[in-house]
Amino acid sequence: EAKSGGRNQYRFFDETMRNQREEELELLADLREALRAGHILPYYQPRYSPCTRRVVAVEALARWMHPERGLILPSEFIPLSEKSGLINQIGLTILEQAVRQRCEWQRQGMDVSVSVNVSLRQLCEADFAATVQRILEADGCDPRRLELEVTETLLLEENPAVARNLEKVRLLGIRIAIDDFGTGYSNLARLNEMAVDCIKIDRSLIQGLPRNEEIVRLVIAMCNFMQVTIVAEGIETLAMAEWAHRHGCHELQGYFYSCPVEAGQMEGLLRGEPGLAQPARTRAWIGD
Ligand code: C2E
Ligand code: MG
Ligand code: MG
Ligand code: MG
């Protein structure tokens, strides 16, 4: 009895595994189709400078507009895309669309920079830098208005292609940001050696304020020593915005200002500057 029960249990486990694999394959097929159909597109979230009181940059964040299911967030498709390698094509289409959009906004007199998330897998491709250059040139986009956001895991990567790609894109004038700083296991010596332009302090650190104030102050001091632009992620309240501003963060990003929105809505927000915040929040808009 026990034996057959064990066998049954095993078979059950096996089937669950198979179902999971099947689900993944289905999701991957859907994703490939979505890419072909142009259903993977960027939403935009502002990065606000409390000193100049302007939106200095917008971050492009991938969204899957599913014909039946509606809007699907990255957490549902980025992990599998990373695993399967499809992240290369997803990253590329987001980069292309964001660069085109930035040029369109510039033609309309809105000179905002754009930041795009880049997977370590993309940086491992030998032709990554050349591809980025081709995309910029296709739209006549100023490389200095593009920033690539990469996570801390980059600092542990041994693949020489990564260092070469980073050097090439920086030579073009593109900026490099370390995303989600403070959540991984950073090699601080390497971070200091690496030519980084910007550090984005992860929202888990920002949202732990004021409890972990000392830690965030140390991170900010380190960033100042490195002379990089400091971005505070996950700003959800006026208190967080004020703290980050007071302690020298150069740019603030989070739901307090705006959640990620589609291009048309972002355009409206950019036009409406400095009243960029929703009416309910206008009074609390830092700097006002
Ligand atoms: P990320 O690059 O760190 O982007 C910030 C994430 O935090 C976004 O989630 C954004 O919507 C969310 N966020 C912004 N402000 C707040 C806030 O005040 N509170 C809270 N709770 N969340 C906030 P999203 O759009 O779901 O993206 C999640 C992650 O997926 C991104 O984190 C990034 O790592 C990845 N991702 C998104 N698009 C791409 C892409 O095109 N390529 C790659 N490789 N990764 C992407
Ligand atoms: Mg990011
Ligand atoms: Mg981040
Ligand atoms: Mg994050």
TrEMBL record:
Lineage top rank: taxon: Bacteria
Signal sequence annotation: none
Limits of the EAL domain: 24-274
The protein, known as: EAL domain-containing protein
Taxonomic source organism: Falsiroseomonas frigidaquae
Lineage: Bacteria, Pseudomonadati, Pseudomonadota, Alphaproteobacteria, Acetobacterales
